Each structure stands twice: as structure tokens, then as C-alpha cells.
Amino acid sequence: MEIPLETYININRKLVEREQETIEKFVVENQLDMKSTGTGLWYRIDDPGTGELIRKGEVVSLEYTIKLLDGTLCYDSEELGPKEFLVGRGGVEAGLEEGILMLKEGARASFIMPPHLAHGLIGDDGKIPSRAILLYNVEVVDVKHQ
User: Fold this and answer.
1) Radius of gyration of the chain (CA)
2) Mean pLDDT value across residues 27-41
3) Which of 67, 82, 138, 144 is 20 to 30 A from 58 (CA-CA)?
4) Burial grade of 42 (CB within 10 A; 0-12, 13-18, 19 or more)
5) With bands split at pLDDT 50, 70 and 90, how would you rate the model's confidence at 146?
6) Measured distance CA(35)–CA(123) in Å, rounded
7) Are strands 73-76 and 59-68 parallel, antiparallel or unpaired?
8) Looking at residue 43, which CATH number applies to its domain?
9) Which residue range forms the structural domain that includes residue 129?
10) C-alpha dihedral sign at 139, 97, 99, 18
11) How many domains does the chain have?
12) Which candidate, 106, 103, 95, 82, places its Cα nearest to that of 132?
């Protein structure tokens, strides 16, 4: 028996709704002053940094921590070194790409990424489980303008 595409779409909508409810509850319970974007990314900019906003095509270097909502540390730059990537090229979480474009060099920010903006249904075969909501804390330590 074949399952109609509409059924899959409805299931995904429900999952996204539940994830957003989980994030909203976390934000309220922890009294976090955060905003959300249309994609479902939640963010708080603690220090705006200086200069111009980061743009696609620039190489960014970040100090970071990645945790699950329960506080479990998944990864951090203290152990692994700074994360460096070319903005707009992919290779990092979609939520990180979106959030970085709101920042400037020297900025510090927090992002809460629902699974569809992070590691999705699969996780990362490491420390991030399937369908995990991630809490990213970042500091932009360098921006190389191309």
C-alpha cells in the first residue's frame, strides 16, 4: 500500500509544530529573551560586534559550543578548535548559515535550531542524536572579506 504524499507532508508539519512548542517552552522556562525567524531559528544577539554584517562569500571563524536542550555538551571549539567556513557554501547547519548573516565580526550570539535547520532526522552519527534541537553559542572571532 502506497502512502499519499499529503500524509507525509502532514506528519512533517506536526513534527515541526511539536519542535517549535518544545523550543518555546524552553525559552519561557529559562527566561531567555529570544526572537524567532520565519524558518524557525531562534536567536539572541548578546554583543552586536563591529563593522558590517557578514555576507555570503566571506570566510568566518567561530568559537562555539553546541549543546542539546537538556544541557548535554555535544561539541565545542575549546576541544576541537574554531569552526571556519565559507558563508553561503553549505557544509554547516542551515540554522548556523542563517544566524551568521545577522552578525558582525566580534559578535556573540545564541541560536536554537530545530532539527530541520540542524542535523535533521539522522543526527550526525556522533554526539548529536536523531531529531535533536540544538543550542548554539557562538562568537565571531574573524571574518575574511573576499
Assistant:
1) 16
2) 96
3) 67
4) buried
5) low
6) 25
7) antiparallel
8) 3.10.50.40
9) 5-144
10) negative
11) 1
12) 95
